[in-house]
Amino acid sequence: xxxxxxxxxxxxAVPVRRASKKVLPGFGLxxxxxxxxxxxxxxxxxxALLFKTFSLTWEQFVTAVTSPRVMASYRLTFGASLIAALVxxxxxxxxxxxxxxxxxxxxxxxxxxVDLPFALPTAVAGISLTAILAGNGWIGQYIEPLGIKLAxxxxxxxxxxxxxxxxxxxxxxxxxxxxxxxxxxxAATSLGATRxxxxxxxxxxxxxxxxxxGFAMAFARAIGEYGSVIFIAGNMPMISEITPLIIIxxxxxxxxxxxxxxxxxxxxxxxxxxxxxNGLQAWQRRNAGAPA
Length: 292
Prior knowledge:
By secondary structure, the protein is mainly alpha-helical. The protein has helices at 27-53, 58-65, 68-101, 107-114, 116-119, 122-133, 140-143, 154-179, 182-190, 195-223, 227-233, 243-252, 256-288. It has 13 helices and no strands.
């Protein structure tokens, strides 16, 4: 009897995995390099700052960071930064709105001028503002006889901080306005909504995360500003002296521990602001529908 030979079954196809090509080396190497680089550039210098502060006792630290002159500098630095950020919040939105919603001659030039505070050295900005607002300046010579003194006063500090902080609000809000769906505005108009209602109910909720992010970035930038402020502030103790100048003054007096104590306070506040900015940016991405 002939043996019945069953036909050979084809072997199951084994899926072949293609090795993914990575432009950079593996995760372990890149992570190690990242941590090493951040340690050298960021963590070690900041750690040295903290360790230098540990040479002070708690009473000495509190005395250094709460002396009347330092407290006056805190009030000026944070108060002027807050006022400048609020002004930029309003006028930065207006500038971004004009650049996005209107067409006019010279629009590209205006758009480029917004970035000028980014590129301009801060010392040049301070000298320019002083030349304009001082008593013999282009504007100061006309307003000082009226009793309006801007240069070498806290008002001059606010003006300098407005100058350096404006681009942060404009460049944060501008792309959000460009991506806004105008169909929603048209639908609201067809339903009888007024211009104010369209802005407050349709546009403003969409751009609020970007506005808050721009405000926080402008505020954080203003707190650490030095070059543009010292020329127009006058640097009078208890009146127009900013905190970064206090730190420089202590260093010039070889009071390294006192300088680092004040610097630690600014470092902690800056770190908190950084966390706030990151949180607002994550909120903005979630609001836009992108993964956080």
